[in-house]
Sequence to fold (284 residues):
Amino acid sequence: MPASTLNADLHCHSIFSDGVLTPSQLAERAKKYGVDVWALTDHDEISGIATARAAALDCDLRFIPGVEISVTWASKTIHIVGLNVDETNVTLIDGLAKTRSGRERRAQDMSDDLAKRAGISGAYQGALKYVGNPDLISRSHFARHLVEIGACTSVSDAFKHYLSDGKPGFVPHRWATLSEAVSWIKGAGGLAVIAHPGRYDLTPIAFDSLFQEFRSYGGMAIETITGSHSPDQYDEYAKVANYYGFFASRGSDFHSPDDDGIDIGLLPALPASSKPIWGHWFDT
Ligand code: AMP
Ligand code: MN
Ligand code: MN
Ligand code: MN
Fold:
């Protein structure tokens, strides 16, 4: 069986970042929805990997240890997924700790901004109720709180009216550099993947620079089939991947059964023209 017929879902989040399920619950859900190869990719965090690996083994699921690193590139936030990383690699562990370190201060500033610009008080305490990992308070936790208090009707509505660039609750932040993220991933034996490229607000020239720079550092792949892309973007980014010589990755970016997004394992297959990144580890 060629690798592209495997149901690979190489992007999702647990309570160790901004997902709502435990790594074990995710493994069970992935199995239930027909996933063959599964990666846990928490934001800036690899503490869930040991449990995820054990849970995957228990339910006979092939497992890839992963991470999704927050990067600032050309003043924009870009996400770089690392696949098949060694979670005991000290440089990766230290780099991720540094990347997480500003989140607490940022969250308090977000809360102050929501109070000042939108009259919403106590958002920091509210968001904390949703946080599973004290090191990893994120905008998703604020979004869930804003839905709970009735300020928004859904998490995506919360990002439309708050928390996004220019809206109340948005606080600019400097994450890792692109070169750091790729080098941490490579140093830990992993492959670097640009997550959901269709989500970035970049000009065609800036996209070309991003792809070339990423490739020059040793970046290997882009996500083409992701929960963040429309069907038109599946085709568009499959072509982009082939143009730059990148492998293609596939992942739902699943966070919660309550979100509108696609569930784990339920994305369409890669087109035959794509080179699946998981072919590095699994043929059949
Ligand atoms: P942070 O790392 O704290 O900036 O939070 C980023 C997270 O917010 C992403 O990983 C998504 O889970 C979530 N997010 C960002 N934009 C949206 C959106 N428009 N709709 C739903 N979730 C979003
Ligand atoms: Mn997220
Ligand atoms: Mn992302
Ligand atoms: Mn993600």
Notes: The chain has ten helices and seven strands. The domain at 3-101+174-280 is CATH 3.20.20.140 (TIM Barrel). Residues 13, 18, 43, 140, 255 surround manganese (II) ion (ligand 2) (CB under 6 Å). Strands lie at 8-9, 37-40, 62-73, 76-83, 191-194, 221-226, 247-251.
